[in-house]
Give the backbone structure.
Amino acid sequence: MLTFPTGAPVFSAGEAANAIYAVRRGIVEVLSPDGDKVCHRPGELFSYQDIVWSDGHYRNQAVARTPVEVLRLDRLRFLNLLHNHPTLAIHLIAQQHDRLREQRTSGTCCY
């Protein structure tokens, strides 16, 4: 488990994407180069898109908006987890769907 104080980067755009993260406590805000913001709260996974569909680098920046605790799961373990528990993919799709709806509805990140 990793802990970050408010304002600390969890990862930055351009860094090697070698892990996904799950929020255990606090709020993590993921900022895209276009200025889009998505907040992740306890129980939510983030950055999985970068290790599955990208060129191996984080496209976004993740910042602790409150003191946070996150769990880090390396790429190989995540892919093995998906292979052994395919229903996790359904959970991730549902999470992404909720995020897209939130962005479309509000256009902002609500705390």
Observations:
- The chain has one domain: 2-106.
